[in-house]
């Protein structure tokens, strides 16, 4: 099969594009509006884009009426957002939060989730989530698209604070397999991490032997980079 998006027909019942870039972490983003209403929504285009300092992004298409999503509007208005790790155990709550609802609806309450106060930002955290990032908005890049929902807002944020539940830390590392993070595939399909294997890149054993694995700068120096 070969096709050119927007130019030629792929000949399939569903566009395969989003099923090719998988799995994608869920950007379960909490914000608060200027009116004080809390908002919580999942986005399947989420990623970290830098680690020193840590920076993340979430990408939101327009809603079905062609308006910016509440998460974007709130993040820009207040300058802050929180990323909450979505897990298999929380999958139903994540799905509830995906519904397109009026701005005055509090998705925390609708999904039966507990709000936890953040330390450095105003948006609440999902208490049931094992990991959360408190973020300050850096900038939004608006990319024009096709149709009512095609235009997309890419919101970048610097991570100011990180919360990790003590019970998911094993031997000094986050136990990913125990958490079972949720990830998006194509169509209406999801997956979760249930198996983890290690594979160090060439030269990394030098950093590990030197006890510098957790220090990117020192490890790079040890490897001559």
Give a quick precis of the structure.
16% of the residues lie in helices and 32% in strands. It is α+β, with helices and mostly antiparallel strands and 225 residues long.
Q: Can you tell me about this structure?
A:
- The chain is of the alpha+beta class.
- The chain folds into two domains: 17-194, Roll (Pnp Oxidase, Chain A), CATH 2.30.110; 196-225, no CATH class.
- 16% of the residues lie in helices and 32% in strands.
- It has six helices and 14 strands.
- The chain has helices at 70-78, 91-96, 107-111, 176-179, 204-209, 216-222; strands at 24-25, 27-32, 38-43, 46-51, 54-61, 80-84, 115-116, 125-126, 131-143, 152-164, 169-170, 173-174, 182-184, 190-192.
- Strands 3-2-6-9-10-5-4 form a seven-stranded antiparallel beta sheet, covered by helices on one side. A three-stranded antiparallel beta sheet has the order 1-13-14, with no helix packed on it.
Keywords:
Pnp Oxidase, Chain A; globular; alpha+beta; 225 residues
């Amino acid at each position: 099969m070969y096709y050119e998006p927007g130019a030629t027909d792929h000949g399939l019942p569903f566009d395969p594009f989003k099923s090719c870039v998988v799995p994608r972490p869920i950007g379960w983003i909490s914000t608060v509006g200027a009116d004080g209403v809390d908002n919580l929504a999942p986005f399947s285009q989420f990623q970290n884009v830098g680690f020193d300092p840590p920076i993340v992004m979430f990408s939101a298409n327009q809603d079905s009426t062609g308006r910016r999503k509440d998460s974007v509007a709130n993040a820009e208005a207040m300058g802050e957002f929180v990323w909450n790790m979505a897990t298999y155990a929380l999958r139903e709550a994540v799905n509830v939060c995906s519904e397109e609802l009026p701005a005055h609806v509090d998705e925390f309450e609708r999904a039966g989730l507990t709000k936890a106060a953040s330390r450095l930002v105003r948006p609440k955290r999902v208490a049931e989530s094992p990991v959360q990032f408190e973020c300050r908005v850096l900038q939004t890049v608006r990319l024009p698209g096709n149709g009512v929902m095609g235009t997309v807002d890419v919101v970048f944020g610097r991570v100011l604070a990180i919360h990790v539940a003590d019970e998911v830390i094993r031997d000094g590392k986050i136990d990913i397999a125990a958490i079972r993070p949720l990830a998006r595939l194509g169509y209406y399909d999801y997956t979760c991490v249930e198996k983890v294997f290690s594979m160090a890149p060439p030269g990394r054993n030098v950093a590990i032997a030197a006890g510098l694995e957790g220090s990117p700068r020192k490890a790079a120096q040890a490897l001559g980079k």
